[in-house]
Amino acid sequence: MLNKNQIASNLLKINAVTLSPKKPYAWSSGMKSPIYTDNRQILGYPKFRRQIEDCLAKTIKENYPQANAIAGVATAGIAHAALVSERLNLPMIYVRSKPKDHGLGRQIEGHLPNHAKIVVIDDLISTGKSALNAARAINKREPDAKVIGIIAIFTYKLVDSTKNFRAMKMSLKTLTNYPTLIQQATDEHIITPTDHNLLAKWRTDPWHWLNK
């Protein structure tokens, strides 16, 4: 079973995570970021993909043994939720960001058992809003169900995400995280110690780090 450092290393190797402290990426929010994450890349590497799904399944069994259903956050969380639910032999649903504007207008697809205890899977946690909104949608549609936790492959560990999960009193588990990844990148000489310090500043104040 891979540990968080090995997972971080593999994410860097397959370019699921790329670092560019000197030429930041522009996020859709307008934020300038020295990191870009596309965990969809994992799906193209069968060995690593299997390792990730094994780690997600193990995380669920160890932390949420009472879980009897899995939910995937559309779109990037759906494939991982499907693979993990197959490993655990559990039913699966997936949750869109908003209801469809045609057909039955569903936001949630799939069937849940009565009194479902659900773990939500997403690929990435930035502010956490997508995963938390999925949990809210499930709780609203299924009043006798309960989302007992959220798991993800990677988290930036931003202050806003910590606040958002705390406000909703929601448990979060991830396979690896931003501080681990930038340390791994430094150890592997992908970035310099100076770059490491710049990247570390971004996490503490992502909107203003370039001006520090």
Describe this structure in words.
The protein is of the alpha/beta class and 212 residues long. It has a single domain (4-177, 203-211), classed as 3-Layer(aba) Sandwich (Rossmann fold), CATH 3.40.50. It contains 7 helices and 10 strands. It has helices at residues 4-13, 46-63, 76-88, 129-141, 159-168, 178-187, 193-204, and strands spanning 17-19, 25-26, 32-33, 35-37, 69-73, 92-95, 108-109, 117-125, 146-155, 172-177. Helix 6 (178-187) packs antiparallel against helix 7. The mean pLDDT is 93.
Q: What would the CATH topology be?
A: Rossmann fold
The tally of helices reads 7
Number of domains: 1
Instruction: Tell me about the largest β-sheet.
Output: 6 strands, mixed
Question: Summary?
Answer:
It contains 7 helices and 10 strands.
Task: List the defining traits of the structure above.
single chain, 212 residues, alpha/beta, Rossmann fold, 6-stranded mixed β-sheet, two-stranded antiparallel ribbon, 7 helices
Helices and strands in order:
Layout: H1 4-13, E1 17-19, E2 25-26, E3 32-33, E4 35-37, H2 46-63, E5 69-73, H3 76-88, E6 92-95, E7 108-109, E8 117-125, H4 129-141, E9 146-155, H5 159-168, E10 172-177, H6 178-187, H7 193-204
Parallel strand pairs: 5-6, 5-8, 8-9, 9-10
Antiparallel strand pairs: 1-4, 2-3, 6-7
